[in-house]
Design a protein that fits this description.
It comes from Halomonas dongshanensis. Keywords: FAD, Flavoprotein, Oxidoreductase. With 587 residues, the protein is an alpha/beta fold. Helix content is 21%, strand content 19%. The two termini are 38 Å apart.
């Protein structure tokens, strides 16, 4: 039995990027807000002190910032005919734990999606014909467009202090930026990061081949920066301990370095950590959210009533919470009816390794979002007619910092241990680089999220079950973009190249990316989407579900910038539209 607490104006589930942004905006509008977070309160000075944070064993190997699989995990399978099994150690992706969420250990790469991506199905049908999209893809429009999204991208980048160089401003095109991006209302808040040797060599070669390289947009700030909330960040020092780590230098933007330091000081906000939400409660008709039920670290259950409920956790937990709370109709792949769990998508990671004899890249110098890229083979920036696939990837060199345990690049055929392996490690450590192509994964009717019928968590709730595999569309695309990447690699004249296109089936054991999206997607049609363009749940007007779970499919970009923009978009809709007519769907 849950103890009922005094009601509040709004309750926010999850205090990562999305939850912290929305909570702050609602508090500034005068609402009393309670934020509920499953993990601990994280603070840079305490948790990511310079004396302890550069610990590869602790953070990269033992995954200290990740959710413990004993707390909660997922089950996985490739097809509906298979029996799903639990993931007992995080491999393919790394869900975060605690305030800041996965934003603490992210790389910092901060792309905006291109304008065409928000109306992808319409765009492809207009360009290639109404019958061009195969039945294996369930692509759909987002229900919003670039003009609506751009101001919120701008707001997120200003909070994060994102470093970069605009390619397209509303006043016209600029040299040095990404020529494929949508027109921006302003340039990046801070200038691009300085580049190390590997991305510089890549950019010079790509330019010689007629491509247009640009600095990867980075929320590792390039100079001292104070954001609109009054929080100051320091410039990146290229320490090389970034992806999988918190930032000791206050250089990598996250909720704990940009939003929560301001939010926690405001009187009408309260954070409750080590509290796991079990259910979104609704009235008898299921037409109004009445609050949440959660369990604290002592095992006590509490009911928090609220006028507005915002669920802003990681993709998996957003969807599981909707399924266990009976919000919407669970997706059925046989009939393709229902929307809760529909259109789960991932990403297609490809790379080409280059082994040189005459280079020294000093690979220990780096950061998660230091680098140069091209977009010539991303999304629909090239003609797909006759290729047999849609989609593409962001091609880039981003030296994250070659730490001593994991960074052991050796050519194929090298023994995995012994003196010859040691010699090959010494010979290749400094002279090896990689060109990555982080590519799209377009949603399919057979890729979805559901509740597992067998496995449960420590609190008795069904685990979330992933049914996922790469489609033929994605595998053809992966082969194509990897071949294009290899052309650039060969032009750089290495001793040897090793091309690694994504092949099937999906294997959940090796790490690929934490860019999991979909399952509670946005759109204009309640028959194919769970939330409207304001992230408001169809039929439950006071419930908003915000995060990458809203993406109808995944383009060839990192998702965090779009998650932040959607959080600002949802907050703006609640403050300036919903509160004028509470209890109603926003027109």
């Amino acid at each position: 039995m849950a103890t009922k607490l005094p009601p509040t104006d709004a309750v926010v589930v999850g205090l990562g990027w999305a939850g912290a942004i929305i909570a702050n905006q609602l508090v500034d509008a005068g609402l009393k807000v309670v934020g509920v977070e499953r993990g601990p309160w994280r603070d840079t000075a305490k948790d990511f002190n310079i004396a302890s944070v550069t610990d590869e064993l602790r953070y990269a190997q033992r995954q200290e910032l990740m959710l413990r699989t004993a707390q909660n995990t997922i089950t996985m399978r490739n097809t509906p005919s298979q029996t799903a099994l639990p993931m007992r150690q995080w491999g393919s992706f790394h869900p975060g734990n605690g305030t800041g969420g996965a934003g603490n250990h992210w790389a910092g790469i901060t792309f905006r999606f291109q304008p065409e991506e928000f109306r992808l199905r319409s765009h492809l049908e207009e360009r290639y014909g109404a019958d061009s999209i195969p039945d294996e893809l369930s692509l759909q429009d987002w229900g919003t467009d670039w003009d609506e999204m751009e101001p919120f991208y701008d707001a997120f980048e200003k909070v994060a202090g994102t470093s970069g160089r605009a390619g397209q401003l509303t006043s016209g095109q600029q040299d040095g930026g990404n020529p494929f991006e949508g027109a921006r209302s302003s340039d990046y808040p801070t200038p691009p990061l300085r580049q190390t040797y590997a991305p510089t060599l890549f950019a010079d070669t790509a330019r010689e081949m007629g491509y247009t390289p640009f600095p990867v947009p980075s929320s590792l700030v390039s100079e001292t920066y104070t954001n609109p909330l009054g929080v100051t960040m320091g410039p990146c020092t290229f320490c090389g301990f970034c992806t999988n780590y918190g930032c000791a230098n206050y250089s990598k933007a996250s909720a704990i370095t940009t939003v929560l330091p301001a939010l926690i000081r405001k009187e009408n906000f309260e954070a409750r950590t080590h509290c796991e939400v079990l259910e979104v409660t609704t009235d008898s008709g299921g037409r109004r959210a009445t609050g949440i039920v959660y369990v604290d670290s002592a095992g006590r259950r509490w009911e928090q009533p609220a006028e507005i409920v915002i669920v802003a956790a990681f993709t998996f937990e957003n969807v599981r919470l909707m399924l266990t709370s009976n919000i919407g109709e669970a997706y059925d792949p046989a009939t393709r009816r229902g929307t809760t769990g529909r259109n789960y998508a991932y990403q297609t990671a490809n790379n080409v390794q280059l082994f040189f004899d005459d280079k020294n890249f000093n690979p220990f110098i780096g950061g998660g979002a230091v680098g140069m890229g091209i977009d010539d083979f991303n999304n629909d920036n090239f003609d797909h007619a006759g290729l047999g696939f849609f989609g593409g990837g962001s091609t880039r060199v981003t030296p994250i910092g070659a730490a001593p345990i994991n960074a052991r690049p050796t050519p194929p055929g090298t023994p995995r241990w012994g003196s010859n392996w040691k010699r090959a490690t010494v010979d290749n450590y400094a002279s090896t680089m990689s060109i990555g192509c982080e590519a799209s994964n377009y949603s399919s009717p057979n890729n979805y999220l559901s509740l597992d019928p067998t496995y449960r968590d420590r609190l008795g709730r069904p685990l979330l079950r992933i049914t996922f595999d790469f489609t033929e569309n994605d595998l053809r695309m992966a082969q194509y973009v990897t071949e294009k990447t290899a052309e650039i690699a060969r032009r750089m004249n290495p001793r040897q190249i090793v091309a690694n296109p994504r092949t099937g089936p999906w294997d959940g054991r090796p790490y690929q990316s934490s860019h999991v999206v979909g399952g509670f997607v946005m759109g204009a049609d309640p028959g194919t989407s769970s939330v409207n363009k304001y992230l408001q749940v169809w039929g439950v007007p006071n419930l908003f579900v915000v995060g990458a779970s809203a993406f109808p499919q995944n383009p060839g970009y990192n998702p965090t910038g779009t998650v932040g923009a959607l959080a600002f978009k949802a907050a703006d809709a609640i403050v300036n539209r919903y509160l004028r007519n509470p209890g109603e769907m926003i027109a």
